UniProtKB/TrEMBL annotation:
<protein>
    <submittedName>
        <fullName>DNA-3-methyladenine glycosylase I</fullName>
    </submittedName>
</protein>
<dbReference type="InterPro" id="IPR052891">
    <property type="entry name" value="DNA-3mA_glycosylase"/>
</dbReference>
<dbReference type="Pfam" id="PF03352">
    <property type="entry name" value="Adenine_glyco"/>
</dbReference>
<dbReference type="InterPro" id="IPR004597">
    <property type="entry name" value="Tag"/>
</dbReference>
<dbReference type="InterPro" id="IPR005019">
    <property type="entry name" value="Adenine_glyco"/>
</dbReference>
<dbReference type="InterPro" id="IPR011257">
    <property type="entry name" value="DNA_glycosylase"/>
</dbReference>
Length: 185
């Protein structure tokens, strides 16, 4: 019997694996949360599929998403990244990633972990929605608006409400699996 999945992931096995193994599953580790912040910020204006296909290239180019290293990237590292055809070569997004790594660590200092900070916006546990169709899944919510506004106030870049909501879905802060999807909790 074939598994029923959310329709957006049926493009290929890479997409199905991401949907089945990661999307909508709660993530509490700062390292993984940061990885998704980087990937989601690069996704702004592009498709998630494009980013997912380049994920390993991003991982290699950005020191395995080590925010402590990224926070110290020099101009020569930025130039090296701009020459890397395996990633999205957008100078503003690369600079934003360096900036966001620095801001990420500031939030860690203030809250003890970035995870405590970000999960506080949903009361520490996932919001489980019950969409019947993809059309019922929002691009933003009041919570993503509030979180995006707070991130901006803290100096983060390329993390508007749509990107933040996608991040919330990816890290399981929100579960938007369709009601008939085999991953629905």
């Amino acid at each position: 019997m074939e598994l029923i999945r959310c329709g957006w992931c049926e493009k290929d096995d890479l997409y199905r694996k991401y949907h089945d193994d990661e999307w909508g599953k709660p993530v509490y580790g700062d390292e993984t949360i940061f990885e998704f912040l980087v990937l989601e910020s690069f996704q702004a204006g592009l498709s998630w599929y494009t980013i997912l296909n380049k994920r390993e290239n991003f991982r290699n180019a950005f020191d395995n998403f080590n925010y402590k290293k990224i926070a110290k990237y020099s101009e020569s590292k930025v130039e090296e990244l701009m020459q890397n055809s395996g990633i999205i070569r957008n100078r503003l997004k690369i600079l934003a990633t360096i900036n966001n790594a620095q801001k990420f660590m500031e939030v860690q200092k203030e809250f003890g972990s970035f995870s405590k900070y970000i999960w506080s916006f949903v009361g520490g546990k996932p919001i489980v929605n019950h969409p019947k169709t993809l059309g019922e899944v929002p691009a933003t919510t009041e919570i993503s608006d509030t979180l995006a506004k707070d991130l901006k106030k803290r100096g983060f870049k390329f993390l508007g409400s749509t990107v933040v909501y996608a991040h919330m879905q990816a890290t399981g802060m929100v579960c938007d699996h369709l009601v008939d999807c085999h991953c629905k909790n």
